[in-house]
Write a structure and sequence with these properties.
Layout: H1 2-30, H2 33-41, H3 44-58, H4 60-76, H5 89-103, H6 106-126, H7 128-134, H8 139-143, H9 145-162, H10 164-180, E1 183-185, E2 190-192
Helix pairs in contact: 1-3, 1-4, 1-10, 3-4, 4-5, 4-6, 6-9, 6-10, 9-10
Length: 193
């Protein structure tokens, strides 16, 4: 029994660390360019890489599938912004999809992608009013409430069918990741707290 508990705790720690890496990377990439230097000076990129490397050391397939899934989902809708690779976001998503399929396989990648899509949709439901006020992209505003609710249910069910423990642990990791990476809004800038 203690071996099973240790295994679950290790997987949760891995997921928590990947979540931190994804959130820190996302926060840095979403900042306006003049704030990226501030994000780097605060060590966010170094902490993100350290968290991801530690997660991979604990459970490489879990860490890699979740990180690939986050990258695929994060870049898929970015069709116009020029990227450092000179590819468009959806092209980078396809490239990472190929890397993920070759390295972790379709099942773990689909489970991770479905689960993280559900997390993103849940977040968009929670942030719909704030995103509307700030003019941010939000899938609930873009696609509609019912459509997103249906997609959330399908995504969560797919993740839970393919990897129920991972799906549960991802949702349990969201609150601590958000608490650890919380930002507070000041008059004209974002500050990591």
């Amino acid at each position: 029994m203690s071996s099973a508990i240790s295994s679950i705790l290790a997987k949760y720690l891995c997921i928590l660390l990947v979540g931190l890496a994804i959130k820190l990377m996302d926060d840095c990439l979403d900042e306006p360019m003049q704030d990226l230097a501030d994000c780097c000076q605060q060590g966010a990129i170094a902490y993100a890489l350290l968290a991801l490397a530690t997660a991979a050391a604990i459970a490489s397939d879990t860490a890699c599938s979740l990180f690939f899934a986050a990258y695929i989902l994060g870049m898929a809708g970015d069709a116009t912004r020029p990227l450092a690779s000179r590819l468009r976001g959806w092209e980078e998503s396809l490239l990472v999809l190929g890397i993920g399929l070759a390295s972790v396989g379709w099942r773990p990648l689909l489970a991770a992608t479905s689960t993280l899509a559900a997390v993103q949709l849940y977040d968009d439901f929670a942030d719909v009013a704030v995103d509307a006020r700030l003019g941010r992209v939000n899938l609930v505003r873009k696609w509609g409430y019912t459509e997103c609710l249906l997609l959330l249910a399908i995504s969560m069910a797919t993740g839970a069918l393919l990897n129920p423990l991972q799906t549960l642990l991802v949702f349990l990791a969201v609150p601590p990741v958000l608490a650890l990476t919380r930002k507070t809004r000041r008059e004209d800038e974002w500050v990591c707290t």
